[in-house]
Write a structure and sequence with these properties.
Largest sheet: 6 strands, antiparallel
Order of helices and strands: HEEEEEHHEEEEHEEHE
Strand order of the largest sheet: 1-2-12-5-6-11
Helix content: 25-40%
Mean pLDDT: 83
Shape: elongated
Structural class: alpha+beta
Number of strands: 12
Distance between the termini: 68 Å
Radius of gyration: 23 Å
Length: 245
C-alpha cells in the first residue's frame, strides 16, 4: 500500500512538472509572438466592407509596424520608409480611445490562442472606441485635397495643379463608388464630393476604397503620424485573394 502511494505521489509530481513546463513553453511562445507582432509583422482580420473591392470582410492580412516605426516601452522607433500615397495602413482614428495595459495584454492573448479569429477589442462598442481600422492613404502632409464623383483629386505640396489619386499613387487599385440616395445633400458625409482642404505639416488623409460605406478622414479628419500603426503588405486568406493588396 505504501509503495502504491509513493508511486501516485511521484506521478502527481511528474504531472505537475509537465504542466508547468507546458505553461512555461506557452508563455515563451506568447512573449515571442508579442515581440514579433509588435516590432516586425502581425496578422489582422478585416471586419468591414470599407476597403472593398480591395479587401473584404473576413480577409486576413499581414501588416508590419516596422515600416513607419513600431511603438515600444522606450518610445517610437524609426521606420524604414515614409507613408506614401496609395499605401494601405492599419491606423487609429483621431477619436480612438487607447485601451489600458491589462485589456491590451488580455486581448493580445485571446488573439494569440484563437489565431487572430477573435479579439476582445474588435466587437461592438469597444471596436468603435479602440480601433484600429484599415484604410488607404490618399494625401500627404501639405497636400490640398478635394473629391468629385467619389474620386479624390490631390494637389501635392508645392504643385500648382490637381491630379487624381490614381495618377499620383504608385499602387494600382479600384474604388467602389455608390449612388447617393435621392435628395442626399452633397454636404453630408459619404457623399460623392468633398470641398477642398489643405493638410497640415503632419497630417495624413485616409479613405476607404468603398467610398459610400467607409468612415474615414472625410468624417473624422486627417490623422497624425503616431496614429499610423502598420503597413499592410499581404493578404494571406482566403487563398483566392492571396497576394499584395
Amino acid at each position: 500500500m505504501f509503495a502504491a502511494k509513493r508511486r501516485s505521489y511521484a506521478e502527481a509530481v511528474e504531472s505537475r512538472r509537465r504542466l508547468g513546463s507546458r505553461l512555461l513553453l506557452l508563455l515563451l511562445v506568447f512573449l515571442s509572438f508579442q515581440v514579433v507582432s509588435g516590432l516586425f509583422v502581425a496578422a489582422y482580420s478585416v471586419s468591414s466592407r470599407s476597403m472593398s473591392p480591395t479587401l473584404a470582410p473576413g480577409d486576413l492580412v499581414l501588416a508590419t509596424p516596422l515600416a513607419f516605426g513600431p511603438k515600444t516601452v522606450f518610445g517610437k522607433l524609426p521606420g524604414f520608409r515614409h507613408p506614401a500615397r496609395g499605401d494601405i495602413v492599419l491606423a487609429e482614428p483621431p477619436f480612438a480611445m487607447r485601451p489600458g495595459f491589462w485589456p491590451t495584454v488580455f486581448d493580445s492573448f485571446v488573439r494569440f490562442v484563437t489565431f487572430q479569429r477573435f479579439s476582445l477589442l474588435s466587437h461592438g462598442h469597444s471596436a468603435v472606441l479602440a480601433g484600429p481600422t484599415v484604410q488607404r492613404i490618399v494625401a500627404l502632409p501639405g497636400d490640398t485635397i478635394e473629391m468629385k464623383n467619389y474620386v479624390f483629386r490631390v494637389k501635392p505640396a508645392g504643385s500648382g495643379h490637381f491630379l487624381t489619386e490614381f495618377e499620383l499613387s504608385s499602387a494600382r487599385y479600384d474604388i467602389a463608388p455608390s449612388q447617393s440616395p435621392q435628395g442626399w445633400n452633397e454636404a453630408f458625409p459619404a457623399s460623392g464630393s468633398m470641398p477642398e482642404r489643405t493638410l497640415g505639416k503632419d497630417e495624413y488623409f485616409l479613405a476607404g476604397d468603398a467610398r459610400g460605406l467607409a468612415s474615414d478622414s472625410r468624417l473624422w479628419g486627417p490623422v497624425k503620424p503616431d496614429r499610423l500603426l502598420a503597413l499592410v503588405i499581404l493578404c494571406y486568406w482566403p487563398p483566392s485573394r492571396f497576394g499584395s493588396p
